Fold this sequence. Notes:
- It is a single chain.
- The protein is α/β, with parallel strands linked by helices and 317 residues long.
- The protein is built from eleven helices and twelve strands.
- It folds into two domains: 3-56 and 63-149, Rossmann fold (3-Layer(aba) Sandwich), CATH 3.40.50; 165-299, Rossmann fold, CATH 3.40.50.620.
- A ten-stranded mixed β-sheet has the order 5-2-1-6-7-12-11-8-9-10, with helices on both faces. Strands 3-4 form a two-stranded antiparallel ribbon.
- Helix 1 packs across helix 6 (177-189) and helix 4 (100-110) packs parallel to helix 5 (133-139).
- The longest helix is centred in the first third of the chain and has 21 residues, at 66-86.
- It holds the Pfam family Usp.
Amino acid sequence: MPDAGLNRWAQPTVILVATDLSDLDRLMPFALQQAHESSARIILLHVLSAGAGFAPDAVGMPSYDPAGAIEFVIKTLEPWRIRARGQDIACDAVVREGFPAQQIVTAARQFRADRLLLGTRSRSKVSKLLLGSVAEQVLRSVNLPVITVGPEAHLEVSGDARQRVVLHATTLRETSSPSAALACQIAVRQKAKLVLLHVLPPVAEMQRDRLPTGLDSTAMRELRILAAETSAADSCCTEVDARIAHGHPAIEILATSVELGADLIVLGSTHRSAFHNLTHDRTVVRVLAHARCPVLTLLDEVEEPVAAAMEQDKIFL
């Protein structure tokens, strides 16, 4: 990925916020913060799905009233648009009708968005996580950073000057390099510490297979190389830490983010088929649904099958 693309993604000029209206209170504080830091314009988008304009008439028969539906959406978005403009942030509200995922992707292209914000949701039981079909389709369809804000994410308002933390969970495959570089640039602009995390299988499993673990693992050597390369790629990014964890990828990513008080989680670039597999086995879904901070994902442009995971370490994520 050329530096120009990374710079644009790290410091966006247009942020598209796709909302179902119920998640505005969760999405907009992060959108305003990011827009303020990068002097970006916010596009607030709501998509009316097919049939949303139907309402019962006086005798209970459905009648099509798209103007009424659009008016309701505009009234709901208007307070946030006013709040943004009160902070000298350009903000416009857009209402579209059709298939939500398709309209979101189309709007991202039309407005030349550099970043997309989406809300995710989860059910009460861990076994029944729900990313949402719209979010999942969008994540697989756009080649730009997508920041998802789950129901447990909240913007901390603190008076102290603590150092911010960007946590990049990497697969250590070659395709992870663009997202590592993006994570580094974001960390630079936020004056944040960058932590590179790689998750290996449980220690007992690796010891049974006579594989080196923890600091002695092949993955740790690769991670240190990536940390050095990432730091060297931008002289301002001076603090890059490398961490190895053992266990379930989603659990370890979430636990590390809580331990560090991460302000952003960046998931490594993933090939389309690999992203599908991760979504299917709930790794990505768990992180997106339960993270206490926003999660940035970046879809890899590579169309060739990705290289197999490092056999000597049985790399998970």
